[in-house]
Amino acid sequence: MPEHGSKSASVGPQGDRVRSDLNVGFEPTSGALTVDVTSKVDYLYGEAIESAVRRVTDAFAVTTGRLTVNDAGALEWVILARVECCLRRAGLDGPPVLPEPAPGADVPRNRDRLRRSRLYIPGNQPKLMVSGGLYGADGIILDLEDSVPPAEKDAARLLVRNALVALDWGASERMVRVNQGAVGEEDLVAIATHNPHTVLLPKVEDASQVVRAAEILRGLAGEEAAFLMPILESPAGVHRAFDIATADPLVVALTLGLEDLSAELAAPRTTEGWESFLARQTTVYAARAAGVQPIASVFSDIENEDALAAYVHRERGLGFDGIGCIHPRQIPVVHREMAPSEAEAERAVRVVRAAREAEERGLGAVAVGSKMVDPPVVQQAFRTVELAVAGGVLAEDWDAEA
Amino acid sequence: MAVKLERNAAGRKVPLDINGRESVPFKGVGKHRPEGSKAAPRVASCIDYPADGDKRVASLKEALLRVGLADGMVVSTHHHLRNGDAVGNLIFDAAAEVGAKDLMWFPSASFPVHANQIGHLDNGVIHHIEGSMNGPLGAYCSAGKMRGLGVLRSHGGRWQAIQDGEVHIDVAVIAAPTADFFGNANAVQGPAACGLLGFALADSIYAEKVIVVTDNLVPFPCLPWQIQGNNVDCVVEVESIGDPSKIVSGTTRITQSPDRRRIAELAAHFCAEAGIMRDGFSFQAGAGGTTLAFAMYLAELMRAENVTARFARGGSTQHMVEMLDEGLIEVILDGQTFDLDGVKSMREDPRHQDTSPFTSYNFHGKGNFASMVDVAVLGATEVDLEFNGNVVTHSDGRLLHGIGGWQNCLAARCAMLLVPSFRDRIPVIVDDVTTVCGPGEMIDVVVTERGIAINPRRQDLLDAVAGSGLPIRPIEDLKAELDRICGVPARPTLSDDPVAVVKWVDGTVIDTVWRVG
């Protein structure tokens, strides 16, 4: 007899142009389960692929039906995700079979880390994810929202979950952008316990959305719950920026999405950006007031490095701490432009040294030369030094000569 | 088929008899010196040729009759027109018409367009191919359908084989973008202009008979002459020698792949940090997307540090020409021109010199340029823990690519392989390469997106980049990471039925390609 209530299902891309991915199909039959694997790499991994498939069918206790795998060199974590998704689409259920964790999969999150650059990677394109950790971005965002078509949300969710386990993200912050609404809540449930460092919440217009996400994450991951970065992409969201930024202690940064915002404003996005000036300023003010990082929108013209540099320069000037990237080649430009100038770095070093000296001598006030320096300036100087080191303006061992 | 095999100095089993000729197994780098006098065609006399210099004949078929094509002869063609070439196919169609059988095709390289020859292999016109076999021809050879053994040689090895008599060409057929009726020819003019004809030069000198085929006949004298009419027997005018749009073959685009750009950037930084990139240095870069990106990043670093290269060897492209124009390179020594900007530069700029495998690669030259180059960047299908490189077969043993100048370029002071660490789950760094094309002692650096492995034999390079911040890693370490990412691969089983051999630059046999399936 066919598995109770199962139906035919298919997941994953098909055709000659597919690379590093696979298609999985399931047909209910009354006979014992058969697994047919066709793979471009069968001479190297034929047995490994079949065994990965069987691990999932075993976990789902599938005993009948026909499973067909058409593989174009997908890595094991992709195979596991696609087979699981196919079986779920077929109406079957079982516990996930997770890949082996990569070194670094358990790196702890860091609230105050640098977030100068964040690289968006589509959550349904495993080929693009594999090297994500190599490009030196401060953060990698596996995107489940805009880059994934509605019919693929379930598949991408499992791919992203497995990518959080199986991929080495290097020094990059492990970020995920989930969907809005109910789909987004399913996303949160799927990823919560796999050490996402920060979750981006799209189109937040009300503090309650943040509270709800925080509840779900805390409920599943407790103390290890991911940080949150709400995205403001509507006039209503911008209007409530401070409430959103202070909605929950898990919020570490506030960002905005200018494409959607411009559409709702009925003011097309321009290079000068006057239509979003208030939104950008509001985001910076609200974030700073709430003690979280203000992060600027993405820059989408990947060919134009000069325009990107100008954009980063301008947003940094408004007070933003970071920029969204959609191609790895944007990352070095962002880091270069986010770095303080040598003069700024030198000034900051003088303040930092004075502050350390004051602390050693047990003095309450910090002075550079004959001038007193206020605490916010001291705090900013530490930040500037960190940015200068990260941006290569100061040597790692800048204080060795002191 | 019972073949006598012997294990060579690379540890590979190779046949001792290749197409009825005794062969020498690879002895190690720099261990073999063929002896005797250089080969030569029979003496010709000018009184046997038209005094007015007009050597035109009406058709390819007539030309083949005129030069006395007979069964079992060796017929050579050249790959300057790459995948746009028509002549390589037309000449065998004509050979079939005159009823020739069992010919050996000796191309300087073949392309997918030459799948046409499969018909001639099947119908007996072609006995076997000694030259690169890609795409459908590679599959045909891999399947064991060819009657003789394929022989893969480097561009330099081809010249070596011609010069020391290993291969005697009966009829050379030269596709010429421009020619006169006497047979002088060049490739800088005409609708199919492709830059130069260096790969046909040896054939024009050493073949018994030479046929020039052109679609752009100009009045005598054709200037400049890259091929001398004094070596040519007859000239055939055809409507088209090939499709000029396919000269570029899509190879001259800088890669957009983030991984490949990262590889190229790491390689360029390596050259700077290792002190290779210094005033007056030289480099070799081909037309693959990654090596083009390498040249782009190198140019940025050269600009920033105010460094000029004395010469670059290519594979010229628009990008290399721009570096010449900008003054970053003083001279281009061009072995094959990949785009129309390259052709124009070769035609108009005296600093853009055409070369041949004789000047660049020939084992029997009194020196050649390849070993004078500071750094060469190359691709590979596989590289192993001993740094042996493979460029001709896929990991399943199928014949995929020719050698080109790859083996010859390994002679550079620093030979670097720019490769992704894996391709669609197939590891590029492996325990043992499927086919040894380059011995590990000649491969100095492997650059992948996950780090740079330096051959432990090159302590000088290891020292030079210590503390540079570049991701230098032992090759075993990269391999271990791949085992984790891709899974430990099974070892594909190959047959023990040879279908082709790979020659080293000195004419010895370095490895065997086995039948698949």
UniProtKB/TrEMBL annotation, chain A:
The name this protein goes by in its record: Citrate lyase ACP
Key words of the record: Cytoplasm, Lyase, Magnesium, Metal-binding, Phosphoprotein
Natural source organism: Candidatus Sulfomarinibacter kjeldsenii
Occurrences of domain HpcH/HpaI aldolase/citrate lyase (ranges): 116-328
Entries under Pfam families matching the protein: ACP (PF06857), HpcH_HpaI (PF03328)
SUPFAM superfamilies attached to this UniProt entry: Phosphoenolpyruvate/pyruvate domain (SSF51621)
Keyword Secreted in record: no
Location within or outside the cell: Cytoplasm
UniProtKB/TrEMBL annotation, chain B:
Keyword Lyase belongs to the record: yes
GO cellular component: ATP-independent citrate lyase complex; cytoplasm
Keywords: Lyase
InterPro entries referenced in this protein's UniProt entry, alphabetically: Citrate_lyase_asu (IPR006472), NagB/RpiA_transferase-like (IPR037171)
Record bears the keyword Lyase: yes
GO terms for MF: citrate CoA-transferase activity; lyase activity
Domain of life: Bacteria
An example Gene Ontology biological process: acetyl-CoA metabolic process
Pfam families: CitF
Protein name: Citrate lyase subunit alpha
Organism: Candidatus Sulfomarinibacter kjeldsenii
